[in-house]
Write a structure and sequence with these properties.
Layout lengths: L2 H40 L3 H29 L8 H32 L4 H4 L4 H14 L5 H6 L11 H39 L6 H29 L1 H11 L9 H42 L1
Helix pairs in contact: 1-2, 1-10, 2-3, 2-5, 2-10, 3-5, 3-7, 3-8, 7-8, 7-9, 8-10
């Protein structure tokens, strides 16, 4: 396989793969938003507020950052020629990505709190509390990644992290994308499942009917959350790992062959933007898969 073939594969992935994600993402996120709005009108639920906020954030991200990425496949990408677009693309995209992840973490914590045996902890699972948490996250996340708006530039002809900022940027990505979010999601998900199992073991025959209904609704949400956590880990964690690899191998960049550089560029493109945006698209289709699996098990 030649270098030009690898470069062409990368371009085709951008042209058709990302375009497919735009279509699927718009359809899936719009339908998910409508489902969650209908659910909230029928019965307000704190977890649904978090999932709705995450879905709206993913939708905005797809129709801003992803569309501009696809435009750059066959045209001169504005982020490489305009310093304003460069900083806005990285800084704004990071805010939206971290908001989406934070809303998912909040949903996992909410499920853990709801299944807690302590009434004081369960009291946090209120729609008003969810709205307040969402508002706080909307205020916090524009502040945390402000360093990207300061240091990211296109002075070298390409928009990205300059060499003096590359290590700090790689560490930031590893901590805030590759380490903390999956740790929080997985930890609170496991705690919630354990709480739910303990509650089930305490159900008495007399109140089993009401309890089963309660548990079924919560198990459905928790299965959906578990699926999204899995998708997050598979599609997002490789991104900071790849960024860290890029920084570590910077001293030997001049020694890399053209073939190695082309392969690394292709792998990097598959990791980001392709895998990164699959997470923003997958929610609705994950719900369909989970419901189909549940139907098969219920029929068997």
């Amino acid at each position: 396989m030649s270098v030009s073939t690898i470069v062409n594969i990368q371009k085709q992935l951008g042209r058709y793969g990302l375009s497919t994600l735009i279509v699927l993402g718009n359809v899936g996120n719009i339908l998910t938003i409508l489902i969650f709005i209908r659910t909230l009108r029928r019965q307000p639920n704190s977890c649904t507020y978090y999932l709705l906020a995450a879905t709206i954030t993913n939708w905005v991200l797809i129709d801003t950052s992803l569309i501009s990425t696809v435009y750059g496949v066959d045209h001169v990408d504005p982020q490489h020629t305009s310093i304003v677009v460069c900083k806005l693309r990285w800084y704004g995209g990071q805010i939206l990505l971290m908001l989406s992840r934070s809303f998912m973490i909040a949903a996992c914590i909410d499920r853990w709190a709801l299944t807690s045996p302590h009434a004081k902890i369960r009291s946090f699972c209120r729609p008003k509390m969810a709205r307040n948490v969402i508002l706080c996250l909307l205020l916090i996340w524009p502040i945390i990644p402000v360093h990207m708006a300061i240091f990211i530039n296109n002075y070298s002809g390409r928009c990205g992290a300059p060499s003096y900022y590359a290590f700090a940027f790689a560490v930031y990505l590893f901590i805030f994308i590759g380490f903390l979010p999956p740790c929080f999601m997985i930890s609170f998900g496991i705690l919630a499942w354990n709480n739910l199992r303990q509650i089930r073991s305490r159900v008495t025959p007399r109140d089993s009917t009401g309890q089963v209904r309660f548990h079924k609704a919560d198990r459905d949400l928790m299965r959906m959350l578990a699926g999204e956590v899995l998708v997050y880990v598979v599609t997002t964690v490789p991104y900071p790992v790849n960024a860290l690899y890029g920084f570590i191998t910077t001293p030997i960049a001049s020694q890399k062959s053209a073939m190695r550089l082309a392969i690394e560029a292709l792998v990097g493109y598959i990791i980001s933007p392709l895998l990164n945006y699959i997470y923003c698209v997958a929610q609705f289709y994950g719900m369909i898969v989970i419901s189909e699996v549940q139907s098969m098990f219920s029929l068997s």
